[in-house]
Design a protein that fits this description.
The chain is α+β, with helices and mostly antiparallel strands. It has 3 helices and 5 strands; from the N terminus they run H-E-E-E-H-E-E-H. Strands 1-2-3-5-4 form a 5-stranded antiparallel beta sheet. A hairpin with a 3-residue loop joins strand 1 and strand 2. The radius of gyration is 14 Å and the shape is globular. The structure holds guanosine-5'-monophosphate (5GP). Guanosine-5'-monophosphate (5GP) binds next to strand 2.
Length: 138
Amino acid sequence: MRYDSDNIFAKILRGEIPSFKVYEDDKTLCFMDIMPRVPGHCLVIPKTSCVNILDATPAQLSACMETVNKVANGAMKAFDADGITLQQFSEAAGGQEVFHLHFHILPRHEGQKVGPHGVMGDMDEIKANGEKLTAALG
Ligand code: 5GP
């Protein structure tokens, strides 16, 4: 699939639509998922264009993984989590809905189920969880 620069995450990167930013460096951005499947669900994306795991360069992947590692450790602290689920979907058949590479970070508690896909979260709660996560990264 070719990269479409009008995808939602490209718009977030350009500041054309708002997001609850958690962390950024020169190569990656982490922000909260607005349809969280667990409290604290956030996304890590590269700042440069690629569709998914299939066209990503090693440099894009390693930059994302560095940020995933940092944010995952922050999420363990911020949400007193017992573990982390990391998800990545590539192509529609693989479950991808937004076609800019992203990694889902889901802080998990023992026995906690992951909620359904596509249910809009409470914005105040998402904002508060984003702030908690940012503070834990401090
Ligand atoms: P995918 O299935 O492509 O891996 O997941 C895309 C994710 O993006 C979903 O978890 C969905 O909730 C999230 N998402 C979709 N639209 C927006 C948006 O406008 N802002 C944010 N922050 N997340 C979004």
